[in-house]
Description:
Blueprint: H1 54-57, H2 71-85, H3 90-99, H4 104-117, H5 122-137, H6 141-150, H7 155-162, H8 167-182, H9 189-202, H10 207-219, H11 223-230, H12 234-240
Helix pairs in contact: 2-4, 3-4, 5-7, 6-7, 8-10, 9-10, 10-11, 10-12
Amino acid sequence: MAGRRARSGRGWDAVPPRTGDTPVRPRRGRRSRSGPESGADPVDEGGWPTEPSDESASSPDGSSRAQPRDEAEAAREICLRQLAVRPRTRAELAGAMARRGISAEVVDEVLDRYDEVGIIDDAAFARAWVSSRHAGRGLARRALANELRQRGVDGDVASAALGELDEATEAETARALVERKLRSARGEPEAVFRRMVGMLARKGYPPGLAIRAVKEALAAQSAEAAEFADQIDPDTLATSDPDSDLSS
């Protein structure tokens, strides 16, 4: 009677059992989502590389596996993630990196390189911002200047971009905004007038321009509104009571 052949090992290298034997399934370890088998470097919620665990830092034979990336690489990743959402100013990217603990030296190094190759351009950003926000939201130069300042755009750069938006364009946009709002406006002409002027004021239009735009739009709406509009003197009303609140 022949004896059983000795198996050469256990697990995946075991000799297949003979017909009739109960098959032995190899045991598998639990796979870690962020371990080396996942095919990606482990990162935290903000995109920062995490320190590898002892299990992922080296293989059983002692060879090195995934290692944390350097600070410059982390800084570039932060910038690219920010830029994937929308264009950013230099100041916005610097702030994003600083909040993640990137040193000032590395921040300047990365941003200088991005400036050099044209990935960031505050002048182009300002021009695009002014054009988009004026066309899409009807914002006037005063409101746009405030938004550019909040995003860290230099004053001279912002002024150059805002200079491309002239007074005639502002007046035309203000009139179009009022006409669109008047289609659904309800109430006495005086109440409607105040709401329309307040709407333009919140978008950054100066009082004189806002009052004239509303006066012209009301005059074309109805006989009653035109009669009320005839009594409005934009220049006098805009300067007679500087403490009045037309935005209510």
